[in-house]
Amino acid sequence: MLNQLINMIFERKIFYENSYDIINKRLKLIKASFEYHYNANKNYREICNKYNIIPGDITNYGDLIKIPLIPIDAFKIEAERKLLLTVPMENIRQQVESSGTSGIPSISYKDIVTLDRIAVSILSLYREFFPIIGDYGMFFTIPPKYIAKLGLMKLITFMQVGFSGFDYVIDLPGDPPDFDRILKEILDQKGKSICHLIGAPFLIYDFIQFIKSRYPGKRFDLDPGSMVITIGGWKRKGDSPLCTRDELNGLLADIFNISNFNIRDIFAMAESNLFTMECEYQQKHVPPWGYFSIRNIENPLEKEELSGKSGILAIFDPLNNSSPGFILSGDIGRIVFEGKCKCGRFGQIFQFERRAVGAETRSCALYMDEFINIYQNKGKMENGK
């Protein structure tokens, strides 16, 4: 499976193959991943036995609904996330944390095989969606070494590799951003190297508001080809969203003369290794080696919604070697369509809408209770086979 997966990720043509070819390759990867975790992970196999499912039952996409999903809240509890491991704890090389915007942060464990797959996939996606090699990057965050475990830092660390130079808006934790310095540094790149703004939406938004206040009515046109790439949530911790996507696009056009084609967003979760990158038409492409399933809010374990209808996001991630990559998230979204995008690429187009709230999380919570009880009722708290 490993060679097949790596070869698929390295092949740039996979983004342009017709839907039939992508669908067949993707199903084989998911089936192989499910079989691996079923055979190697005693605790996950116990869940599968509870639902009377074995790898041989997965023959088509309609059968994916049978694969037991890991509830997102399991990553928030140390005892439970260790139960998820397919590999021994001593094989874990890194742990990745969510920002904890909605409460307790999630932690996902990664072994070296998973990390290798992540590295290859991120570099492949950057090459495909963001023409930034050799340019200059201004990162709207603090240096990764201070918050290395945070999921979005992994994306930023890999992105640095392709730049001829880069800097950070914030030098040290707790320091306020020096937007005067940042603006000067960005403008100094003009005519020398294309400059891209990358990072947290709220910091980019604050930067724009600073410019509007300090230099009312003034424009600072960047070189053609400059991009703005947002990574992470669109609100501060505990706050409502900063602005709409269209409003941010308008502000960036007014201040920096950046077109919508060069404003992109990345959707990612610490618990998963799949990253959805936006194309020039601001459509989020699910990587061809992964699958997003939109589940019915009332019955997420047994009913999948059709394209265009909103529901709870379930993720099928064959990159994960450390633990089963089949996750029931706490996010509401929809598959806009599956097929050929205006950009020429094939695959699933995903639209994130919001976090699940209130009664929408009830079915997930009930499943979480059942998930935990499978072990606790039988006293099976060990990892491995």
Description:
This protein has about 375 residues and is an alpha/beta fold. The chain has 2 domains: about 1-80 and about 85-90 and about 275-375, ANL, N-terminal domain (Rossmann fold, 3-Layer(aba) Sandwich); about 130-225 and about 235-265, no CATH class. Helix content is about 30%, strand content about 20%. The chain contains 10 helices and 14 strands. The strands form 2 sheets. Strands 1, 4, 5, 6, 7, 8, 9, 10, 11, 12, 13 and 14 form a 12-stranded mixed β-sheet that branches. A two-stranded antiparallel sheet has the order 2-3. Helix 6 (about 150-160) links the parallel strand 4 and strand 5 (about 165-170). Helix 1 runs parallel beside helix 5 (about 110-130), helix 2 packs across helix 3 and helix 8 packs across helix 9 (about 245-255).
Which descriptors would you attach to this protein?
385 residues, disordered C terminus, alpha/beta, two-stranded antiparallel ribbon, twelve-stranded mixed sheet, Rossmann fold, 32% helix, 10 helices, 14 strands, globular
> Hey, roughly how much beta strand do the residues contain?
15-25%
Oligomeric form: single chain
What is the first-to-last residue Cα distance? 20 Å
Helix segment tally: 10
Mean pLDDT: 83
Fold-level CATH name of the largest domain: Rossmann fold
Biggest β-sheet strands, sense, barrel: 12 strands, mixed
The helix/strand class is alpha/beta
